[in-house]
Design goal:
Shape: globular
Largest sheet: 7 strands, antiparallel
Distance between the termini: 19 Å
Number of helices: 1
Number of domains: 1
Radius of gyration: 14 Å
Oligomer: single chain
Strand content: over 45%
Strand order of the largest sheet: 1-2-3-7-6-5-4
Helix content: 10-25%
Number of strands: 7
CATH topology: Protein Transport Mog1p, Chain A
CATH architecture: 3-Layer(aba) Sandwich
Amino acid sequence: MAAHECAHGGRTFFHVIFRKDGTDGSSGLVSLVATENTHGSLPPAAVLEELHVRGSGRSGVVLLRGGDRRGLDIVGTETEHRLVFVVSSRGGDETLGMARALLPVAVASL
């Protein structure tokens, strides 16, 4: 696992890279990415799921949207201040499962 900040397309991203099951190469990579929501929303993508979450005395909805880009599955959500998404080459179902677990925590933490 590694974490860093990087710049791409005029934005700064917080990027956490996971390696699942000890695999090497792009087939085993999973990333959690977050950036400020200052340049507009996530690209249009199909709504996959709506999660209702509670934490820190507040509740809300995390709307998961996703699709495929350059052979990678992307599932993301946005808040007023952040865009947060999971990028994976592990397949759509597994990516959605990871997003269900990671995105509500990431949104609450960021």
